[in-house]
TrEMBL record:
PANTHER family: COBALT-PRECORRIN-5A HYDROLASE. It comes from Tepidimicrobium xylanilyticum. Residues 219-334 form the CobE/GbiG C-terminal domain. This is Cobalt-precorrin 5A hydrolase. Residues 132-199 form the Cobalamin biosynthesis central region domain. It comes from the Bacteria.
Length: 340
């Protein structure tokens, strides 16, 4: 994690230099030190650069200085950098901004341990040893769909309310007053809020107090003719997932055969859905191609009988539908899920 440390006094400079030195041994944080009186225009003049280029900031200063310097750049808890404040005496390391998602709580703990200072964590869930929903989502690479509802459900957990939990994955959030639901529609009236982990769309919940976390559990195998436009592949993926009542935000990986490694349309689709492209060798495809219908034309063209179905199968999960063919594109979908 790339961290900018800023200091304003001689004592702060010494603390910052110590953090830089000790971070090189930790291999967890890489700290760069910016000293106010050694910068033309001072630290304030380079704040846009620091906020843009660094994942976190450590202010060795009064909390008020950090607040004033950061105020123009605070946007959203999912985008804000981690901000930690260390007092000039090196006694406290205060998690000031983006404690969970940005990682300021962990950074404050590391700074505290490094300087033998007291880490100050004020987020309610941490102080009650409750696993926050946003950290649970980040840990498991779940997309947080309705962030305002996440705040509401987290507040319920902090207050000890009964919360329902429905998930098609194995991971379970750590909370004492949690009721595991086998069906999100069957809800005990005593449950005040629900956490849902699913890549399905259109789940009907008899309550408006729920938050949705979308797991990355949809794998897509693609084959196509040469030079197929990316927008056509994207459209086919979206339409196919729509028919299956699945969210594109749940796409984990797109896979294809090595012959299609440089296919621009497939690469564009990966960029659009923000997912990696997995390339399978001809040998990997051949090992399992007998499980699927064969195309002799494809065999003569690239050396294997099919591409999309073997690719989706190799990526993992339950095959959801027969291969889709349209306009020179073949598409197959597999879904990894502990519970349907």
């Amino acid at each position: 994690m790339k961290i900018a440390c800023v200091s304003f006094t001689q004592r702060g400079k010494e603390i910052g230099n110590k953090l830089v030195k000790l971070s090189s041994r930790a291999n967890r944080y890489t700290i760069y030190h910016f000293i106010n009186n050694e910068i033309n225009g001072g630290v304030k003049s380079i704040m846009p650069y620091l906020v843009k280029e660094y994942e976190g900031l450590i202010f060795i200063s009064a909390t008020g200085i950090a607040v004033r310097f950061m105020k123009p750049y605070i946007r959203d808890k999912t985008q804000d950098p981690a901000v930690v404040v260390v007092d000039d005496g090196g006694k406290f390391a205060i998690s000031l901004l983006s404690g969970h998602i940005g990682g300021a709580n962990e950074l404050a703990q590391w700074v505290g341990s490094t300087l033998k200072a007291i880490p100050v964590i004020t987020t309610a869930s941490d102080n009650r040893d409750i696993e926050s929903i946003d950290l649970f989502a980040i840990k498991n690479n779940y997309h947080m769909e309705n962030k305002d509802s996440i705040k509401e459900i987290t507040a319920m957990m902090v207050n000890g309310s009964k919360v329902g939990f429905y998930s098609e994955m194995e991971e379970i959030i750590d909370y004492d007053n949690l009721t595991i639901l086998s069906n999100p529609k069957d809800i005990d009236p005593s449950i005040e809020g629900i956490i849902i982990v699913s890549s399905k769309t259109g789940i009907k919940i008899p309550s408006n107090k729920y938050c949705l976390l979308i797991p990355k559990n949809i794998n897509i195998g693609i084959g196509c003719r040469k030079n197929v436009e990316g927008k056509r592949i994207i459209e086919l993926i979206e339409n196919t997932l729509g028919r299956l009542s699945l969210s594109p935000k749940g796409i984990k990986t797109i896979g294809t055969v090595e012959v299609k490694r440089g296919e621009t349309g497939i690469i564009e689709a990966c960029n659009y859905f923000n997912c990696p492209l997995k390339i399978f060798s001809l040998e990997e495809i051949k090992e399992i191609e007998d499980k699927f219908p064969k195309s002799h034309f494809v065999k003569e063209t690239i050396g294997v009988y099919s591409v999309s179905e073997p690719s989706a199968y190799l990526l993992g999960g339950k095959m959801l539908a027969a291969k889709i063919k349209k306009d020179g594109i073949t598409l197959s979908i597999a879904k990894e899920a502990y519970k349907e």
